[in-house]
């Protein structure tokens, strides 16, 4: 039976990094830099809007995709499937993946394209969809899966929390359809959701329920909104059970997993999750110190750096686990 194997990775973040001290000046907000760096782990981030860079979601996704294709040694024309995972799309419609396909392949091709929006679990959901499609369709030989985030485009002036946490960035992987004899490849995925919790945090304006109006703009009820406080222990409760269930489903013991690449939202939470799993903390790559929180981009970005920093080798079992508002949680298990 065929399966999908990761053969290339790439990342992109716009402009020079912005330190916490520079962020205070550029965004005009006050923040607790000591807590932000010590507990959450964020020391810098990339934000196109604050740097005056005319780039948005599709630009980030395209550049990460090109980097991953180059890393795989492939021409963009070889992509048969392009999926973009994001909840900060370029437009409501058309899909961001369509724009990326047009830029990569410069016209009509026999290429399947679509977006996946599952909040910050969009990339892991997209990766699972791509792997399953490739396993079942011999015409899908090469896929590009991108996780991308542009939440700073929705942060309102004066929102100290929004500016301090959210950042721009994209990560991408290239998948190749290989036969079961290849030791590398996608194993399985696991997902959990609770849509009754949709009204905690999100971008609620701009869709059909809440079109943007002048009155809304004047009232400031647009962009990123926190309607209820998220429970601080949510991910600590969610991630260990889903990771254990994932490993059991995939038939790979938790103790054999070489790296756990988790949503890069909070360094302390990641360390607590690793403790709860009974696994060494150093097995969880972390990049929030240099990138901030990049939503659906953060898992492929952290994975890219783990690969390039020599933390992984072929044959290593890897777990991805990501959660997003709404809520949606997804996890992937594969052999690198």
Structural class, by secondary structure, is: alpha/beta
* Approximate shape: globular
Our count of helices gives 12
CATH homologous superfamily label of the largest domain: Thiolase/Chalcone synthase
Separation of the first and last Cα atoms: 17 Å
The first-level CATH class of the largest domain is given as Alpha Beta
Provide the β-strand percentage band: 15-25%
Q: Fraction of residues in helices?
A: 25-40%
Largest sheet: 5 strands, mixed
The count of β-strands is 13
Integer average pLDDT: 96
Order of helices and strands: EEHHEHHEHEHEHEEEHEHEHHHEE
How many individual domains? 2
Cα Rg: 19 Å
Question: What does this protein look like?
Answer:
With 336 residues, this protein is α/β, with parallel strands linked by helices. The chain folds into 2 domains: 3-178, Thiolase/Chalcone synthase (Peroxisomal Thiolase, Chain A, domain 1, 3-Layer(aba) Sandwich); 185-335, Peroxisomal Thiolase, Chain A, domain 1 (3-Layer(aba) Sandwich). It has 12 helices and 13 strands. The protein has helices spanning 20-27, 33-40, 48-51, 57-72, 96-105, 122-136, 160-165, 214-219, 234-250, 267-277, 288-291, 298-308, and strands at 3-12, 18-19, 44-45, 81-85, 112-116, 142-149, 169-178, 185-197, 201-203, 224-226, 259-262, 317-324, 326-335. A 5-stranded mixed β-sheet has the order 1-7-6-4-5, with helices on both faces. A 4-stranded mixed β-sheet has the order 8-13-12-11, with helices on both faces. Strands 2-3 form a two-stranded antiparallel ribbon. Strand 12 and strand 13 (326-335) form a beta hairpin. Helix 4 (57-72) crosses helix 5 and helix 9 crosses helix 10. The chain is globular, with a radius of gyration of 19 Å.
